[in-house]
């Protein structure tokens, strides 16, 4: 494999620079530092992306034993995710589907062997991800963990929200204001005391109670993105709660497409597409500049 091979891919237009690094030899942590992540994600002078996914075996990730604990042994692969600003995130719902798709397209896993799911390590813990019959992927994201109530302030308007952890923090704000009218070029303000590590904020319109929502999202470490898988899970959970239901299946429309979120008494399953757009190599010219 060419050492500096890269892929571009997306899940419902949440796009990523993907770095195949199975043996941890190409992108050691001092090479893939925050500045390199920002350069790769830069949309004009770099490749462009909402984040970076390094596809690496867990044994080559220094913090994998700490974040996976006894699950380390069943997670051969680790989704080393970075936001476009270089920060680490615990979890990424669109990214983890793309991660499995890349393992398949790179010949590292057989899709037919993935229908029952494969354990993937993440900084939010182990997650089971599998190939769906429609060509997409499902990810068992674990249960939504309510963190209380919060508020997002955008353009002088306060939006009440449900704070929810999907491994990473979210504030899902159900609103009657048409989300298409919102200006998300600036991140909404939130209560830093409630979210000491920052937060992803979803603005959510209910299309059909407890069954169908649409959302826009301002992501921690990125800004507005075309989709957020964990945000879709948080929004679905909040919409079910608002509809008086603890379980159900919610269709979530995002600017970049459609996701499905099934919530039961124990967990949350996210289903949607993943696409590899292109593959190539970083040039010595760019790497050396
Ligand atoms: N887009 C992702 C979430 C990526 C991480 C997020 N920005 C954070 O910092 O928590 C998704 O699909 O879940």
TrEMBL record:
Locations listed in the record: Cytoplasm
Reactions catalysed: (2S,6S)-2,6-diaminopimelate = meso-2,6-diaminopimelate
Keywords for this protein: Amino-acid biosynthesis, Cytoplasm, Isomerase, Lysine biosynthesis
Residue(s) at site: Could be important to modulate the pK values of the two catalytic cysteine residues: 170, 219
Residues noted as binding substrate in the record, renumbered to the chain: 14, 83, 93-94, 168, 200, 219-220, 229-230
Active-site residues per Swiss-Prot or TrEMBL entry: 92, 92 (proton donor), 228 (proton acceptor)
Pfam families linked to this entry: DAP_epimerase
Key word Isomerase present: yes
E.C. code: 5.1.1.7
GO molecular function: diaminopimelate epimerase activity
Quaternary structure (record): Homodimer.
Family annotation (HAMAP family): DAP_epimerase (MF_00197)
Function in brief: Catalyzes the stereoinversion of LL-2,6-diaminopimelate (L,L-DAP) to meso-diaminopimelate (meso-DAP), a precursor of L-lysine and an essential component of the bacterial peptidoglycan.
Family designation: Belongs to the diaminopimelate epimerase family.
NCBIfam families referenced in this protein's UniProt entry, alphabetically: DapF (TIGR00652)
Protein name per the record: Diaminopimelate epimerase
Source organism of this protein record: Geodermatophilus sabuli
Gene giving rise to this polypeptide: dapF
